[in-house]
Amino acid sequence: MNTSLYLFPLPVLDVPPPVSDIGDLLLGCGFVGEALEAHHYLAGPEFFRHIAFAGCSPHLQLERPADGGWDFCHVSLIADRQPPPLFVAPARSRPRCPSCRAPVPGWKEKLQVWERDSAQLWRCHACGESCPVAMLDWRQYGFGARCAVEIHQVYPGEALPGDGLMQLLSEGTGREWRHAWAGSSTG
User: Fold this and answer.
1) At what angle are helices 19-28 and 163-173 packed, to 10 degrees?
2) pLDDT tens digits, residue range 16-74?
3) In degrees rounded to 5, what are phi and psi of residue 181?
């Protein structure tokens, strides 16, 4: 499984809060634990208090594999990236115009370019409104942003961030936060 749950601040194209501040908030509430390397953390002692998993007993590997790979549930911080990347969930994304709700035609053909720069402008064929690709309605199966918190090895729809975690991030950064599922940034 190479999909993740992402948390990201709004507005998505504005200068984001410093990643060190985000890391301090997550460490302080116990969501993340030991640092593995720059911006990669083990799940902390309060991880399951802040994330709700669907189903009665999810099986998550929380320890790094012996080979040192990244195929396990851990948390990473994606620092400010310019241009802002676009992340989408495989086979789940079907973007719509945020103004008129019309489907975005030809989006799959443009996806490779949009993944490198979600600040590119898109114009709706139905209503004529323009917006950056990051502002399209990906219905929580995609997003574009300059920074994010990534919870690795989570299937789309399998887990949701708790209200307390989202409130902590909002109050600690002065920004509203949202969540989405998408392909993993580490492949």
Assistant:
1) 140
2) 999 999 999 999 999 999 999 889 999 999 999 999 988 655 678 888 888 888 889 99
3) -110, 145
22: left (phi over 0), alpha (psi -120 to 50) or beta: alpha
- Distance from chain centroid for Cα 2: 13
At 184, give phi and psi (nearest 5°): -70, 145
Q: Beta strand pairing status for 86-88 and 142-144? A: antiparallel
- Give the CA dihedral 127, 133, 135, 137, nearest 10 degrees: 70
**Radius of gyration over every alpha carbon of the chain, rounded to an integer in angstroms:** 16
**Cβ proximity of 106 and 94 under 8 Å:** no
